[in-house]
# Entry
Amino acid sequence: MPDGLLLGLDVDPKALALSRETLAPYEGRTHLVQASYTTITKQLASLHWNEVDGIMLDLGASSMQFDNASRGFSFMQDGPLDMRFGPQAFQSAEDIVNTFDEKDLADLIFRYGEDRDSRKIARAIVISRPLRTTCELAAVIEKASPRRGSRVHPATQTFQALRIVVNEELASVESVLPQAVTCLRPGGRLAVISFHSLEDRIVKDFFREQSKDLFNPPYEGIYEKERKAVVKIINKKPIVASDEEIKDNPRARSAKLRIVEKL
# Structure
């Protein structure tokens, strides 16, 4: 839109700095705030924007964060076990790795990393403490769960689990989705890009629930409509990257885009 306005939210100050440079030509029409997208209702109210035409949520970590060794998101290069999206995070990955007991570590690796070797990995981590860097942790995981022949590095799921817990990612998704729908005008659209099955399941289930009429329990065999559907699902199957896009950007392989329109 040639006269549209943009509100951008991110907890990462470096991401915001880069965005300000990129959007400098549109400075009068953009509002960039260092804040979680879970504060979207508050942020829109501060601008006196009652409803908006569209919202895009790009979940999870960014390539910029993965590629910066000092952020500690990747085991492909050595760096501190940090994994915080922004300075507001309560704890780092190092805190979790070195203070959680074995059972709690195994539970979070299984729940948020969906790793079948979670108990082995947790035991190996506890025995190897203290662990301070990404490569130290990756080496311990690889020894505990070698998975020879697999294209996926054995540390992938544990690193995902730690990142999710550090940044309370799933709770944030659950918090922002209903706010986002409420903030849309009728006809406005909400688009969400997720990058792993745990995020996508939350988005898919929420969209499905919001797209159905809700009925009260029957009284004398009669159902009464309690709430009409709030949104219309635009794409029943998620939009995924084309082979050409994946070739240019391999990380797009796991991206799934779901879109709804407010009724």
